[in-house]
Design brief:
The chain is 40% helix and 7% strand. It is mainly α. The longest helix has 21 residues. The relative contact order is 0.23.
Length: 109
């Protein structure tokens, strides 16, 4: 648990509705489309995802121009299995479409 020591940026996703409290979703992870749909239905989801992607798309080239070969972006939630996993995958996918090459690792799965 806790914030990864090597994280450069950390996004706390606990403001989104928690699939843990839905018994049918609890045993699943953020990689499951049913969990993703549950999280996506949160009214704050779409705008927060858009804003995170826009922020990273603006910052990444600036970090690179300062000589950073890579940046570690961490997503957190209560258990590290649902919301953070889903968001990490979604953000990475959107960044790939913009020409970045993120690597995703899920610490708590």
């Amino acid at each position: 648990g806790g914030i990864p020591r090597n994280a450069d940026l950390v996004f706390d996703m606990r403001f989104l509705r928690n699939p843990h409290w839905e018994p049918s979703l609890r045993p699943l992870t953020g990689l499951d489309p049913r969990v993703g749909a549950y999280i996506d239905s949160d009214p704050a989801y779409a705008e927060s995802l858009d804003r995170i992607v826009e922020l990273l798309a603006m910052l990444l080239p600036r970090y690179a121009s300062e000589g950073r070969a890579y940046l570690t972006v961490a997503f957190g939630c209560t258990g590290g299995r649902h919301r953070s996993v889903h968001l990490a995958e979604e953000v990475a996918g959107r960044l790939r479409k913009r020409g970045f090459s993120p690597t995703v690792a899920h610490r708590d799965l």
